[in-house]
Amino acid sequence: MEISIDGQKISYLDRGKGRVVVLLHGWSKEINKEKYLPLINLLEKNFRIVAIDFPGFGKSIKPNHPWSVSDFSDLVQKFLIKLKISKYIIIGHSFGGRVAIKLAAENILGLEKLVLVDSAGVERKSIKVKLMVLLAKLVPVEMKNKLRSFGSNDYRDVLDDEIMRETMKNVVAESLEADMARIKVPTLLVWGEEDRTTPLWQAKIIRQLIVGSELKVINGGNHGLPYKMPEKTAEIIIKYLK
User: Fold this and answer.
1) Which residues on neighbouring strands pair with residue 189, listed in sequence order?
2) Which domains are seen in the chain, by residue range?
3) Which sign does the torsion angle of CA 18, 21, 22, 26 carry?
4) How confident is the model at residue 18 (pLDDT cuts 50, 70, 90)?
5) Structural contact between residues 194 and 229, judged by C-beta atoms closer than 8 angstroms
6) 3-state helix, strand and coil shares in percent for the chain, rounded to the nearest 5
7) For residues 18 and 47, is the Cβ–Cβ distance under 8 A?
8) What is the DSSP string of 193-204?
């Protein structure tokens, strides 16, 4: 399915019946709504699942200028209005968690519950990352240009696309901890014990910031819980939402 929002073509799927669950995906050149079908197939037995491709991902056209997290959250709000969805639950994975946090912090009408799966949004650096940044500053520019491995996989994915590269810079530059502290809706955190992209220590910070939030840790899970461990992820989410 496709819909146009402010001239922006957005691809989405709409499956199942019952309470509406809006699924917001992560960031990678290989990520789109279809990547989450293993989880969607399980959730649609209990809910109506609406999942979009963010602009620049999947079948949705990329923006014509660099976006911020707020631009993505504004798009989701307009999307919900256009589909006349007035009550809903949001599941945000990784980058989608950033957008979900921004939406929830704005206390948008109709949001009943929030589920963050291995969510990004905490920009504090671990000691390991601080050391890597320090070492990177000591490396000559010529060598940096050759060693693209200094950047994350997500950043390397967009090196040749100026708009998406600048969009990613905007996104990762914004800490959402102040937004987290403003969230009032019931919130569940689902985390992979072995997540190396958004480590478990970040989940514990989010749990402290979102008053009353719950944290469920999946043993052996990593950052790709929705498509690598969909059964366990769905089990936890369904139990929480019932």
Assistant:
1) 116, 215
2) 2-241 (3.40.50.1820)
3) negative
4) very high
5) no
6) 45, 20, 40
7) yes
8) TT-SSS-HHHHH
CA distance 195 to 192: 5
d(CA 170, CA 133): 19
| Separation between Cα atoms, residue 120 and residue 94, nearest integer Å | 5
Give me 187's structure tokens.
Answer: 């919130």
Average pLDDT estimate for 106-126:
91
pLDDT tens digits for 193-221? Answer: 999 999 999 999 999 999 999 999 999 99
pTM for the structure as a whole: 0.89
134 three-class SS: helix
Tell the burial category of 23 from Cβ atoms under 10 Å away from its Cβ (0-12, 13-18, 19+). Answer: buried
Q: What is the pLDDT of residues 121-148, one digit of tens each?
A: 998 764 444 444 444 455 455 544 544 4
User: What whole-number distance in Å separates Cα of residue 19 and Cα of residue 16?
Assistant: 9
Kindly tell me if the per-residue pLDDT of 151 is higher than 70: no
Token pair for 80: 């919900």
The one-character DSSP state at 29 is T
- Whether 190 shows a pLDDT value over 50: the answer reads yes
The Cα 123–Cα 171 span in angstroms is 11
